[in-house]
Amino acid sequence: MKSIAIFNNKGGVGKTTLLCNVASYLCVKKAKRVLVVDADPQCNASLYMLNNEEWQDILNDYNDNSIYKIFEPIQKGEGYIDSQKIPIFKSNGFGLDLVVGDTKLSVMEDFLSGDWISGKSGDSRGLKTTFIILDLLNKVKDKYDYVFFDVGPSLGAINRVVLLACNYFILPMSSDIFSIQALSNISTALNTWLRSINRGLDEYKEKEKRPFYINDVEILPKLKLLGYIYQQYTAKSVGGVRRPVMAYEKILHDMPSKIETELHDMIDNISPEELNLGSIPNFNSLIPMSQTANKPIFLLAGTDGIVGAHFSKVKEYENVMDNIVSNLLHNINKYD
Prior knowledge:
Layout: E1 2-6, H1 15-28, E2 34-38, H2 44-49, H3 52-60, H4 68-75, E3 89-91, E4 96-99, H5 108-120, H6 124-130, H7 132-140, E5 146-150, H8 157-163, E6 168-174, H9 177-208, E7 213-214, E8 217-218, E9 224-233, E10 235-238, E11 241-244, H10 246-262, H11 272-275, E12 276-281, H12 286-293, H13 310-335
Helix pairs in contact: 1-13, 5-6, 9-10
């Protein structure tokens, strides 16, 4: 099982739409077992992937059956959630399983930050809290091939516990200078988190004379960059080939070298060309239609309001997803 976060601390990069469509493509078109965990307190992935009937089923049996239920026991000092109580629901439109988001998750920031300080010092309780998501992954590893995490655009404590548990992260990039500038912040934060928690694990090992384990597995965080995807650019056709307009060309040209420079510690055996998982031009009205239908863009049909030229745009989007997913799987195989 592989765990992947789609993450950028800059907002407005189309992160949630990308995640839901990539995850669904793996499930529907590649026959993979996929779980999405909505770890963004804004809950956009949950709102996108569940229709009114599915929401009603959840609300009728809610009882905090959301991601909040995973964090609550350890906050109360009761340890990790029992594997039988992990709240997993089905998104019929996207064909995959989902841990529903919760706006209350934002109140966990202070708790996670406090235990992070003690975890960096090798304290058992702090380490246990910091690796709460790793415990979740250990408990579902036999049920899924891929677990995707939707996270908010921040460098806060919630995103930290998610990213330290994941095998990989994908950078969604918009075609603007601010996405380039954000790379420095991301690099600084991720490297600081990894150095700090590894020191904490070393101190624990020195004090306890044994490594820190969760479910009999030694904790060795190794987050790697799987690649980046740039999207929402304006394209024109030159000689039958779609190219971004000139205003974006310099930004897109500089992107590979900037990513490689800033995140080189998290890249291993992957070339700059391979890090580019693909690009997504602006598909305009298809995104709101997908949100209204609670279906991935590549599955939109006439019953969802698709007419005329929209059919060719849906097919174009499917081709884009196929390319991105193929490159994603290629890079995972290289890391393995």
